[in-house]
UniProtKB/TrEMBL annotation:
<feature type="transmembrane region" description="Helical">
    <location>
        <begin position="84"/>
        <end position="104"/>
    </location>
</feature>
<keyword id="KW-0472">Membrane</keyword>
<dbReference type="InterPro" id="IPR000390">
    <property type="entry name" value="Small_drug/metabolite_transptr"/>
</dbReference>
<feature type="transmembrane region" description="Helical">
    <location>
        <begin position="57"/>
        <end position="78"/>
    </location>
</feature>
<dbReference type="InterPro" id="IPR045324">
    <property type="entry name" value="Small_multidrug_res"/>
</dbReference>
<keyword id="KW-0812">Transmembrane</keyword>
<dbReference type="Pfam" id="PF00893">
    <property type="entry name" value="Multi_Drug_Res"/>
</dbReference>
<keyword id="KW-1133">Transmembrane helix</keyword>
<keyword id="KW-0813">Transport</keyword>
<comment type="similarity">
    <text>Belongs to the drug/metabolite transporter (DMT) superfamily. Small multidrug resistance (SMR) (TC 2.A.7.1) family. Gdx/SugE subfamily.</text>
</comment>
<feature type="transmembrane region" description="Helical">
    <location>
        <begin position="29"/>
        <end position="50"/>
    </location>
</feature>
<keyword id="KW-1003">Cell membrane</keyword>
<dbReference type="InterPro" id="IPR037185">
    <property type="entry name" value="EmrE-like"/>
</dbReference>
<protein>
    <recommendedName>
        <fullName>Guanidinium exporter</fullName>
    </recommendedName>
</protein>
């Protein structure tokens, strides 16, 4: 169950990262409310996952999911650059997430 919590925590991490862009520095009400709600859900789910997983693994996977998702959605939604080097780096983050999952022991 901890890994399920962690995956959803990462999804909400992506949501609030993208929400930051839409909130325009918390100057737009509803995108700001959604961003803050996603932050709260994300942290709560991370805390639940950390009950059973090593904190270093949980935190690294959480931030990794958020980072990869934010980069990919940034490319799709905001025309962020999709250079080969950026894609390689995203692949390395994914490899790290998979490696941590395989070696976590929980």
């Amino acid at each position: 169950m901890a890994w399920i919590y962690l995956v959803f925590a990462g999804v909400f991490e992506i949501g609030w990262a993208i929400g930051l862009k839409y909130s325009e520095g918390f100057s737009r009400l509803w995108p700001s409310v959604a961003t803050l709600a996603a932050m709260a859900v994300s942290i709560t789910l991370l805390a639940l996952a950390a009950r059973q997983l090593p904190i270093g693994t949980a935190y690294a996977v959480w931030t990794g999911i958020g980072a990869v998702g934010a980069v990919v959605l940034g490319m799709a939604l905001f025309n962020d650059p999709a250079t080969p080097m950026r894609l390689l780096c995203v692949g390395l983050i994914l490899a790290g997430i998979i490696g941590l999952k395989l070696t976590a022991g929980a």
